Amino acid sequence: MGSLEGRDADLLDAVVRLVRLVETAAGRKVLAPLIIREIIYRLLIGGQGARLSHIFASGGDTRRISKAIGHLRKHFDEQLKMEEIARELGMSVSGFHHHFKSVTSMSPLQFQKHLRLQEARRLMLGEDLDAASAAFRVGYQDASHFSREYKRHFGAPPHGDIASLLSRSDNSSVRYLTRKLTWLGCIDHLEELSGARLGRGQHHGTALSTTHNDYRPLLAWRRLRKSR
Fold this sequence. Notes:
The chain has helices at residues 4-20, 25-44, 49-58, 60-74, 82-89, 93-104, 108-126, 131-137, 143-154, 158-168, 172-194, 216-227. By secondary structure, the protein is mainly alpha-helical.
C-alpha cells in the first residue's frame, strides 16, 4: 500500500469526483453509489480503518449511539442524565458508556463538554457575547468553572482566545465564507445522492459546523458587520 499522503490524495480525489456529480445529472444515479463505495473502502484502509470496522460490526449498537449523539447535540445545554438515556436506548449505563466511547473516543460527559465549549466559542465570536453570558447559554452555572474548562480545552482563557482569533482574521476569511456557503449548498445535493446525513451544526441554530475548529466564517461575518 502507498504512503499516508498517497491514500489521502486518493480519498480526496474520490470526494471531489462525488462533488462534481452534483452538476452531472446524467451519470449521477449510476456513478454516485460506486464512488461512495470507493470512499468507504479508502476510509477503511486508512488510519481510522480499525475504528470504522468496529462501528460497522457493531450494527445496532452504533445506531443506538448515533441516536444518543443526536440527543446530546440537541440538549447539550441541559444536565446529562446517563441513566435516562441508557434506559431509552435499552442499554445498561456501563454498556452505553463503553459503546459511546468506542464510537466517539470520548465519554458522554466529555462529548457534552466539547459541544458546550465549541458553542460558547461560536457565541462569543458570532454574537459578541461575553464569557459569562456564553457560559450560561450553553449550560454552565459557574463562570469561573467555565473559564477553567475553556482554557484547558482551547489553551487560553475565553477573552484571550477570542482576541487571538480576531487578531489573526483577515480578508481571506471573507472569500472563505463565500466558498463555505457554496459547499453547504452542495451538501444538500450530496445527501440526496448518498441517502445519508453529512456532518453539520444542527443545534440551537448553528448554521456552520464548528466541530473542526473552523471559525473563519464567523470571523468574516463579524468583520463585515463591523465595517458597516
